[in-house]
Amino acid sequence: MEKHYIEWLFPGFLVSETVAREVPSRTRPAKVPERAYAYRFYDQSEVELDGEILKGKSKNHSCWIFMDAELYTLEQVERLPGKNDILISNMKCNNWDTVVKTKFGQFMQLHDGDRVE
Predict the structure, then answer these.
(1) Are residues 54 and 7 part of one domain?
(2) Are residues 58 and 10 in the same domain?
(3) Which range of residues forms the domain containing residue 78?
(4) In 10 A of CB 65, how many CB atoms?
C-alpha cells in the first residue's frame, strides 16, 4: 500500500531537525507544528508480511516549501550588515544565485523547485 508523508524541518544545533508524519493526501497542511520552517511531501510503500509491516524507501519527494521566509540574491547578502563572509563564499563557490532566509534567521540553500510561501 502506498502512503503519503509530510516531512517538517525545524531549527537544530548544527543541522536542521526533521520529523515525518503520515498524511491522507499531499495537500497544504492546515496546522503547522511550532518552530517548523519548511515542509515537503514524499511517498512510501508498506506491505504486511507475516504480521510485520515492511516499509520501502521514501520516493516521489516534492520540493521543500519554506514558510514565512525571504529569498536573497548574492548582491543582497553582500549588502547585509554583519559578517556574512562564509555565506557569501558558499554562494560564490557553489554558484548559488539565491538563498532563503528562514523565519529563524538561518540561510539555507535552495534546490531546483524549492519555493517560498
Answers:
(1) yes
(2) yes
(3) 68-111
(4) 18
Q: Is the same domain home to 15 and 57?
A: yes
86 falls within a domain = yes
**Under 8 Å between Cβ of 96 and 73:** no
Q: Please, which residues have CB within 8 angstroms of residue 99's CB and are 6 or more apart in sequence?
A: 71, 72, 77, 87, 91, 107, 108, 109, 110
For residue 106 the three cell numbers come to 538561518
Pairing type for strands 65-66 and 115-116 reads: parallel
Quick one: cell of 49? 508480511
Q: Based on the domain organization, do 82 and 32 belong to the same domain? A: no
**pLDDT above 90 (res 13):** no
Are 27 and 60 contained in the same domain?
A: yes
Question: What are the tens digits of pLDDT across the range 92-110?
Answer: 999 999 999 999 999 999 9
pLDDT tens readout for residues 29-64: 999 999 999 999 999 999 999 999 999 999 999 999
Nearest alpha carbon to residue 6 among 41, 50, 56: 41
Tell me, yes or no, whether 117 lies in a domain.
Answer: no
Average of per-residue pLDDT across 71-100:
95
